[in-house]
Amino acid sequence: MERQRYDVVIVGGGAAGLSGALALARARRSVLVIDAGEPRNAPASHVHNYLGRESTPPGELLAIGRNEAAGYGAEIVSGRVASAERLPGAEDAGFRVVTEDGRSVEARRLLVTTGLVDELPPVPGLAERWGREVLHCPYCHGHEVADRPIGVLATGPLAVHQALMWRQWSDDVTLFLHTGPEPSAEEYEELAARDVAVVDGEVAGLEIADDRFTGVRLTSGRVVPREALVVQARFTARSAVLESLGLTPVAQEMAGTVVGTYIPSDPTGATEVPGVWAAGNVTRLTEQVVGAAAAGLMAAGALNGDLITEDTRLAVAARRA
Ligand SMILES: Cc1cc2nc3c(=O)[nH]c(=O)nc-3n(C[C@H](O)[C@H](O)[C@H](O)COP(=O)(O)OP(=O)(O)OC[C@H]3O[C@@H](n4cnc5c(N)ncnc54)[C@H](O)[C@@H]3O)c2cc1C
After folding, report:
1. Tally of structural domains, the chain
2. Is residue 155 within 8 Å of residue 231, measured between CB atoms?
3. When you count CB atoms within 10 A of the terminal residue's CB, does the N or C end of the chain come out lower?
């Protein structure tokens, strides 16, 4: 780290963080990005639905972003932030950020873009195939498995909705009831009308051949051939740094069921702690890469505006003195 104090320290260097860094560096702010280097989509081979860069490998997209932000003077370092705290004293005292390896730096404002963790259902083998053939997001992967045999693993009430959704990409969709609730009569009718097969019984694991997922194995021993398996991951905000500042994650509900946690923020990303902004998946669980980048830009604009207000207040006080 080249300085002891920055206008803004950004915790997390994914799409949200780097986009914020680019805008703030272009606004002539001193910016430090501290990034642990584990973006959520790292297991995926390509980023889809990112206009202008469709189908770019995730690492390549971030490398482009790092170069762009660094080109305007943003500093980007590897590291994991352990905690942050407000410095004692005046309202404009700022914050201290401490990394896990004991480095410490000060910032006038913080932008936290630490993303979320996908917690997978406890079925053996899912983690190894995550982002390859074990999927959650039809907009990220649907086109790549179009017309293939797709399974949907039910672990909650959203599974029927998922099965009907993935039916848009393939006419060979099987819903595995596994530990999910029994569909209602109306849902069974919808599934039948869209030719979605329903398989009762718990799933024991995945069949793999030549490093490819080939089917779903039930506890009965029956194997149903499939080429992709859709799961409902739990989206847990990586909120430790924001929690260290006094913020509390809240449950995100979808169709009456809890699908994860997030740190609340206003439309600009401002959190309940003055001077602390959040952007990307840590505060909006459904945000895609282009949305996370847009949120980083939005937060950067609001944050720079806040700094301009403070700069002006300090200048007026100095002029009067
Ligand atoms: C398998 C998979 C495939 C996907 N495919 C697509 C796709 O094709 N298109 C699409 O638009 N979206 C896709 N997504 C969603 C996409 O991953 C997210 O929208 C995006 O990553 C959100 O960006 P972010 O900046 O909020 O978080 P992330 O990209 O997760 O970045 C957060 C960064 O913060 C770092 N970090 C976390 N904690 C700390 C800490 N304490 N200190 C320092 N750094 C920290 C992390 O290491 C990481 O580098 C996919 C998701 C998954 C799981």
Report:
1. 2
2. yes
3. C
